[in-house]
Structure formats: structure tokens, C-alpha cells
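INTERNAL AUDIT FORM
Audit reference: QA-55
Scope: verify that the stored structure record matches its stored sequence.
Auditor: D.O.
Record contents follow.
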Amino acid sequence: KGEKDYKKAFTIIKEGGYKRKHFSHTSGKKCSYDNYLHSLAERKFVEWFNSHNEIFLQLHVRDYCQSYHNCIWRNNPFQDYTCRTHNQKVYSLTHFYDNIEIEKHHQGFIWDLWITNSKNPNISPIAIEIYVTHKCEENKLKSGIKTIEIKIENEEQLEKIINSNTLKEGENI
């Protein structure tokens, strides 16, 4: 499923007898390292998602004291920092989602990867946007769709993510 969408949208794999195995763009699109890396990342993420039983998302979250909303010290600039804490929470993507698509058209946008729950359509989808040089458009991020933006700088970084079972929020995610 993913390979068919991948070939249709971007590239084909050439495995000739004379040249090394390589990617080639369809429809006369120009090949660049950025396009290659982006396309490779999409395909690798689909393979990764479909082959792992557990994939986690680790996020930085802000927690508040139980009394935060009624606290007399809440708006005190010298005290407010004690009312809030920053923690890390881990969510299982594969617990809530079981389907991934490449280049999904939704709400007037094309999302690089689209993750859904095929058994429960009431669970909001998650989009993954991969970028090599250009961050996701601001209007896409403000669309109301939960979006994970991942910066990929090289194949080694991509392999490091794929070889783990956790997407950890940080500099590149």
C-alpha cells in the first residue's frame, strides 16, 4: 500500500544491470538530495510504523498544581513558577493508531504522513510533516490537526529515529 502511493507520488527505484541501485523521479520532477531524503523518510516511516508493535511519542508537558486555578499566588510573578512544573509524558501511538498513509489530502492540505485509527474514526488523526530545509507552513500548523514536525538532515539521523521505538520531542521533533 505505502510503496504504491510512494511511487505514484514521488519516485521509482531503479535496479538496472549496469548502474547502482538508485531512485528516479517520475513525471519529469527534478531530483535533489532534499527531495530524495524527504521521499526516503516518508517511505521509511511507513515501514517503521507498520513493522513495530509499539511506537511511542515523548512530549514535554506543563502540569499545574491541583489548586492552580483557585490559588491566590497564581498571578504573583515571584510565586507563579512554583505552581507549574514541566514533565515528560510518553504516549503510545500504536495503542491509539493503526493506519498510516503517505501524501494524504485533507482540509485543503497535503500531509506527508497521515495516521488514523481504522476501528475508531472518532479518534482525531495525527499528521507527520517531514522537512529537510523548509519548515511546515504556519497555516498548516494552525489548522487544528495534531501535527508532529520532524526535521531530517541526513540518512543517519533518519536511521537513528527508525531504529528506536520513540519519537522524542526536542530540537528536530
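Auditor finding: record pair retrieved intact. The first strand starts at residue 11 and ends at 14.
Action required: none
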